[in-house]
Amino acid sequence: MPTIDVNGVQLFYELHGTGDTPLVFVHGSWASHNTWDLVVPSLAESFQVLVYDRRGHSQSQRLTAQGSVREDVADLAALIENLGLAPAWVAGNSFGASITLRMASERPELLRGLIAHEPPLFSLLADDPAMAPMLKEVEQKFGAVSERIASGDHAGAAEQFVETVALGPNTWAQLPSDFQQTLIGNAPTFLDEVNDPEQLAFNLAWIKGFSPPSLLTTGDQSPPTFPPVVAQLASVLPNVESIVLPGAGHLPHATHPDAYVEAIRTFVRKNSR
What we know:
Strand order of the largest sheet: 1-2-4-3-5-6-7-8
Shape: globular
Order of helices and strands: EEEHEHEHEHHHHEHEHH
Distance between the termini: 36 Å
InterPro entries: AB_hydrolase_1, AB_hydrolase_fold, Carboxylesterase_BioH
GO molecular function, one term: hydrolase activity
CATH topology: Rossmann fold
Protein name: Alpha/beta hydrolase
Organism: Thioalkalivibrio paradoxus ARh 1
Keywords: Hydrolase
C-alpha cells in the first residue's frame, strides 16, 4: 500500500494514469479514496489522477488529538508538492470541496484550477434570515448524528446521516455493503470534524483573488442548502463557471459518473487552450 508521511500523519494514496496533467480528488466526510472508483478509470486515460484517504479516514492514520480543517488543507498541499504534481487540477466533493477552496485561498500556486461540488460552507448563509430555519434544521441533524457517534452507535449514525442529511430517506439499504462499512468505520472522524469550530467557516474575501478557472457544480436532486452556498462563491470568484448536473444529488461521481466525467473533461479542455 503506498503511503506518505506528511505533517506527522501517514496518508494512503493511489496514482492512476500516465497523463501529463495532474488531477487530484478530495473526498468528503465519512468517505475514502474509493468513492471515486467509478470516475477514475475514464479520467486516467488523459490525466494523472491522485486519490487519497484524508487523515482519519480508512487506510490513512487517525490521530487522537482534535483535528482541524486547517490540517486537511495542509495535507492536501503537502501531497501535491511531495508527489511533484503542482500545479494540479483539484476536484473536491462536499467537505472535500471546502478543503479545496480553502487551499485555493492559501496556496493558489498549487492549482491549475478547481472543481467543487456542493461545499457545506453554511456560514456563508448566516446573515440571510430566510435561510435561518433551514440552517437550524441542519445543525440539529448534525447534532443528532454526533450524539449517536459519541454513544458508540457508529452504524446507526452512518445510516442516519445518509438518510437525513446526505442522500435522503430509504437510501441506506441501496448502498453497497462495502461502502456502508467505509462510512461506519469513518464515523469517529466525522465527529472530530463536527467538533472543529472552523468546519463550516469561510470568508468570501479569501478567494476574491483566485484567478485560475473554477467550476462549481450542484445536483438538481440535492438538499436545498447547497445552491445558495454555491451562488455566494460564484459571486466573488473572478473566473468561474457554475453548472447543474441533471438527476444528480450530493454524490454525482457515484450516481452519475459519466456526466461528472464529461463535466470535468469539458471544463479542463476549455481552460487548457
